## 1
Amino acid sequence: MYNPKSLKAEEFISDVEIRDTLAYADANKDNLELVDEILKKAALRKGLNHREASVLLACDNKEKIEEMYALAEQIKKDFYGNRIVMFAPLYLSNYCINGCVYCPYHIKNKHIARKKLTQEEIVKEVVALQDMGHKRLALEAGEDPKNNPIEYILECIKTIYSIKHKNGAIRRVNVNIAATSVEEYRMLKEAGIGTYILFQETYNKKSYEELHPYGPKSNYAYHTEAMDRAMEGGIDDVGLGVLFGLELYRYEFAGLLMHAEHLEAVHGVGPHTISVPRLKRADDIDPDTFDNGIDDETFAKICALIRISVPYTGMIISTRESQAVREKVIKLGVSQISGASRTSVGGYCEPEPEEENSEQFDVSDKRTLDEVVKWLMEMGYIPSFCTACYREGRTGDRFMSLCKSGQIQNCCHPNALMTLKEYLIDYASEDTKAIGEALIEAELNNIPKEKVREICKENLAKIEKGIRDFRF
Ligand code: SAM
């Protein structure tokens, strides 16, 4: 039985409810009166439920799709302005005992090099990331209690936060590791992590079990209920995602929104972020052997509908996507992107030797961080290296209420400008710097409150003089 408040995976992600939702969406996809009603509700910026959003996803009327895109673009502007938060993944270890059939780290893959970074190697990798200008990392690891126990992850986090190099520091460490216990989530919280990210991969239980034939990850309920345990352990920012390409996208889309509704119903706070990874080629993995790949147009529609369904949730896109696709979806609602990513264990400090091949998947966007920053600014976006919300305790429901009321603009916009200024001075090429300085100058005028604008100007001048004691 479907019950969003239940703590049982099969009740809050009810297969029957998803199938009913898809049938309802099919029956109503040409009901333009209903589509208009849903769009009107979406325009109130309070979100849509999984049924309403699924009707929009099924609707293939060109004019209505244009309306969805226009609304997504507007909501994106209202909630996130023109800021794009920057981050990089750091792969700590690819030892893994699971059997995920889409992932090259699966235990039976004998042709990839198995690696785990030592603390000395982490220092080198993080210094290299800081030298690019990164301030925010997402830690990634396979699941292997012997090689990557929680103590190892905690030690890595401690090392990363301790590295101060020139003007650089990693100010927020997000973590994407396998589902774990309340106790271990509590340890992660105490270690000062930002968001705990875990992709569901697929919400379809039957497919999930086929795609994860053995290993701890094969337990659908344990995996699906992970965010509840994370929240019980005190982590109030959690990041959802599905791996598009594994199952029917409409099923996943409904499941994803139901998961968000469940978190809101039980914990009073929805997901902090939603990631939208698509299956990619990797060692031992041919995406063409999976039947459910989605084209770029469908992908864009999903991003736009996530934006209007959960307006207050950040949306993340990785370098799995090309420059062209990223350009399209940033406009429609993506608020965080990675830059200059390596998906190998190590590889930032020195490129990985070809024969070692520890990459998780092929990266499509291979540009440097400087190139990505410049590209964003040329399109009128402000690349933001800010982590202030987390550092100021604006997480969980406190962040959500600021975001829902639209007030987040008052702090995010100036902070984004100040962290961009730091980036330009410390790391940017001459070309990027020139574009950035002009952008900051122009954007100062877009800070509505005069007092905030004045403080921002003062702080920018301090940064110019080398004073860096702000809490971004
Ligand atoms: N081991 C953790 C877990 O099981 O959740 C961490 C996840 S892994 C380092 C990060 C994510 O990469 C996975 O959750 C999966 O969605 C994604 N991934 C795995 N194989 C992929 C592939 N071939 N193409 C694109 N993404 C992939």
## 2
Amino acid sequence: MAPRLIDPFARAITYLRVSVTDRCDFRCVYCMAENMTFLPKKELLTLEELDRMCSAFIGLGVEKLRITGGEPLVRKGIMTFFNSMSRHLDSGALQELTLTTNGSQLARYADDLYAAGVRRVNVSLDTLDEDKFARVTRWGRLPQVLNGLDAAQRAGLRIKINAVALKGFNEDELFTMTEWCASRGMDLTWIEVMPMGDLGNEDRVGQYWSLKDVRAMLAEQYTVTDLAERSGGPARYVRLEETGQKIGFITPLSHNFCESCNRVRMTCTGELYMCLGQEDRADLRAPLRDSPEDDAPLIAAIHKAIGLKPKGHDFDYSRQRADGQVSRHMSHTGG
Ligand code: SAM
Ligand code: SF4
């Protein structure tokens, strides 16, 4: 068996996030410009290549696979990929196959996803107000996403809502969203907005809203208990005793999780980013395409890349020009 993936800081890499497309049917203001230019098709890994790539990682000890994008469910033929990945769930090599989605296509795919072995999905939703939703996603329509959530719950999928915390935009919905999620049995995670991409201020619907403030606001209304649970990523969790609900906080800007980092991210072109906050990356597409019959060069390239995983990242809002800023969009690395 090939040796497992252990980085230079003794962290086992067991979690792979894979972007399967850079395209999306929304244009969220903090994520994409309205007139995005997308990659030519030949740059993208084919569904077969995605399968080979993910299977190689699973063979090296990756136990959790999260499919993201862009919007993963707009990739043509994506269910073929999910269906094919389910063999790794059946074999026990993969513990979880999941995805992050904007929810627009869930009504169509929820049953198929469940049949492929998906049990949980993260759905991004920043507001429950139709007009605000249209403003923040530019092209999205709230009822379509709400239908998708209904279908997903009917299909038996557990849902976690991810909301980007935006000052002056969804601050006033903190309690409405909390109660709404509680009433539907959904967990809720707040994400701090990150300095990604090249959006000018005119495109920002809101500004940085510190999750410390979100937590403090919640504590005014609820009994908030810190949970010891760690995901190996930037999320911290609390329980609201009155609703029994789990609330997460993702603060990618603080350096408080790097030591337990268990993950790497792959773009839809087969570039492996070893750290969300660093530009360091390794091209895995060339070793994959250059050796169609033999995975050995790919596996060697994966090991070499993991050997370069940095200790931590370098986002920092306190510096003048957001020095830690990385120029790529979240839709490229897949959040
Ligand atoms: N399209 C899918 C979706 O929206 O869930 C998956 C890809 S999206 C890039 C993944 C996550 O990144 C979403 O929850 C989105 O809100 C978040 N995101 C995008 N840009 C962000 C930014 N600048 N700061 C913080 N979160 C961001
Ligand atoms: Fe699309 Fe997700 Fe980015 Fe919104 S956050 S534009 S839904 S990829």
## 3
Amino acid sequence: MSVRVVVGAQWGDEAKGKIVDLFAQQSQYVVRYAGGSNAGHTVCTNGKTYKFHLIPSGILHPDTLAVIGDGVVMDLRSFQTETEVLRQQGVSLQNLRIGLGVHLTMPYHRQLDELAEAKIEGRIGTTKRGIGPTYADKADRIGLRVADLLDRQRFETRLRRVLERRNPVLQRVYEAPAIDADALTEEFALYAEQIRPYATDVPHLLMSSLERGEPILLEGAQGTLLDLDYGTYPYVTSSHPVSAGACLGTGIAPNRITEIWGVAKAYTTRVGEGPFPTELNDETGDRIRNRGREYGTTTGRARRVGWLDLVALRYSARLNGFTALAITLLDVLSGFPTLKVCTAYRYCGETTVRFVSDGYALDECEPLYTELPGWQEEITDCRQLEALPVNAQAYLRFIEQYVGVPIRLISVGPNREQTIWV
Ligand code: IMP
């Protein structure tokens, strides 16, 4: 029996979609545990590219159940668009399950997110998908869940109560029109019928599956450094991408987890505002961005790019309890004479190897680098560790030794087969 968690080890966009897809074939269930349609996972297989925002990429495997766990928040309008595109690509949704406790990202959440980003100082650079306001309502106990949606009367009553609190904010703070409860109730009554066949008690489903000893894969979204508590607050998302979030978001107990895979790029990227000590605002950064096609799946924004930050990666490894590392996009680093990796920070006049997670304090940290020799060869056709240039092997060994976690997978291209298992 295995319960594997796949966690983003940096600021998101670590190519988790590919790693999840590789493990999905050995799993009975692939369960998404956090975030919402702010995520974007790309899977390239058999000459086709699939883009996922909400639906677990496990849906591509006919024998795997793709489950949206209760820690996820779901925008039903964007769910319609996503399912439509997948259907057109010939993907069946028959194996989809959606938790009854999943919170709904409502149109007013999206609106509030957009308005706050546009009008309030100190923007976070969110994806404007309504994620923060949805989780805020969840904590405020006025969120609407899938279970509410399935009972029209209950949904309407609760929606009216929420709007009594949210409409004055829209009108008075942002001078925006109030939301019409009747129109929203009608629209969501249609979604209710589309969702009903998939709605499931997820903790119960997974507990029964654990009793049968079936393999489960828990799929994270975003990355550790965007965690609400342990990321670079306030420049974070509103959920828990870390491995502990996998338990909260699915109902699986911590002692049932058997493997925790951290997925990290061979360099670092970040989207949105916030500190990024190793950021490169120069030609080297542009070159990595272009080679790595570093533009957001969800928003199309150009990602900020920088050298690998090992101080941050080791923090991430300890926080999550990684049992294995997957290093992705190694191929992007071909062609540089030397590569830098950040091995310490200069902070308040001292040198430290401790990660500073406070968003404002991290902004004060200056990265201290170790330089490693690069390699010139293209490596996208390598399928074994020994086939990689010796300097690429040394780069990986350096990461492994600094972080203290074995690298068990290396990705050298977007396709399934462009993978080295170690
Ligand atoms: P939110 O999750 O839309 O509220 O955005 C909060 C922060 O998380 C912003 O900096 C976003 O750019 C970042 N973020 C959210 N989702 C992703 C993702 O999937 N990849 C990378 N960054 C993300």
## 4
Amino acid sequence: MSMLRIQGGKPLVGDLEVAGSKNSALAVLSSVVLCDGPVMLHNVPHVSDIETKCQLLRMFGAQVDWVEGSLVVDATPLSFAEPDAELVRKIRTSFYLLGPLLARLGFCRIPAPGGCRIGARPVDFHLKGLRTLGAEIDLEGGVYTARCDQLRGAEIYLDFPSAGATQHLMATAVLAEGITTLQNVAVEPEVVALAEFLNRLGARIEGAGTGTIYIHGVSRLEPNEYRIPADRLQAGTFLLAGAITGGDVCVKGLVPENQTPVVNKLREAGAFVQEGHDFVRVSSVGRLDAIQIKTMPYPGFPTDMQQPMAAVLALANGVSVIDETIYESRIGHIAELNRMGAKIQLQGRVASITGVDRLRGASVEASDLRAGAALVLAGLAAEGTTTVRNVHFIDRGYEDLENTLNGLGGNVVRLDANGRPVLSGAAQVRAER
Ligand code: EPU
């Protein structure tokens, strides 16, 4: 079990290039099995969730190789398999393989998924949609078994614009016979990216990025290549790192419109934000002002950014309020931030944050990916030394986090359980490869 030791109190200053999007890459890797030929993916981030997904794909017979930094997946030799339940439970998107595998094989078994523990995270929208497309699905002993002769296009209405259900059903419908209409869908950039990817391979998807998506079924997909877009959540985290440390950070290689919620809220809090055609730069001097935030589906304020933002607002002037409407228990960061001197009170899903003028380094524990990011940000701004344990959560979604922060002037060291310095998460992943 490694940990990050952070020597806080230094403003972060400089430029960085953001890595490819974890959530985009995971969605693409779920649907890549629709194609019976090699697909080359560029800019796939070196994070542990991707490694888990690659292992799962290999279990189903796909050939998955890193070639000069790109990921090549050939799902031609796909076959039925009983995937390892422990592996499946590591990531939520293992479940998103169910529909695409079913479309290719006509039969599939997948244990119930896991992922970060931030709420109940049911899969009812996925199941309802897949059944509407003609799948027969049973759950027994914690394993979903799905069968179908031929999936058929249908009209599907989502009760909530779930990013995962939109991606899963859109991909599954690509090889279904006829036209599928998905209504009340998510408009997240990762949904648009997935549609772009599938269309490059010959799918016929229209409307991604709007509330209704139309999919004209095709009989097969053709091999092609695709570049995973920048990770808006990593980018947002680095922008917040600039703000919380009173620094000046420029994140490059991103799509500025995708950062709109974070950028607007930082401006409202008094930070200076400059946007160019592929960069966003944030700087701040002195304390930010308290603000109110309500998490919403895109383009609302992302639930993934509320935890890192809570760390920033812990040091703002006045009382901020964060209302988390998407997940009922994305709150693991609060007690740990309070351990560092923050004053955050939680009532239901609403956190009231009374800003303090300083945080103090402490030994804290990440409970999930973005809670971990929040604690790292707090550690960067705190007086003294912070130790963040359970770094494996952070490695799920941040590539080389400590090296990136150190490149901006931070002082972050990864230590093993005995306190000895070790390689970064991404460097370990590369070394094991
Ligand atoms: N929901 C249901 N039933 C379903 C599906 C979702 O009730 O069948 C609910 C969820 O419980 C939640 C809401 O709908 O309350 C939204 O969930 P959504 O399906 O949109 O989330 P997801 O696809 O499971 C993805 C990201 C999350 C991110 C959310 C929200 C991936 C791998 N995960 O999850 O990212 O928080 O969208 O934007 O793409 C992270 O990166 O740290 C992370 C957790």
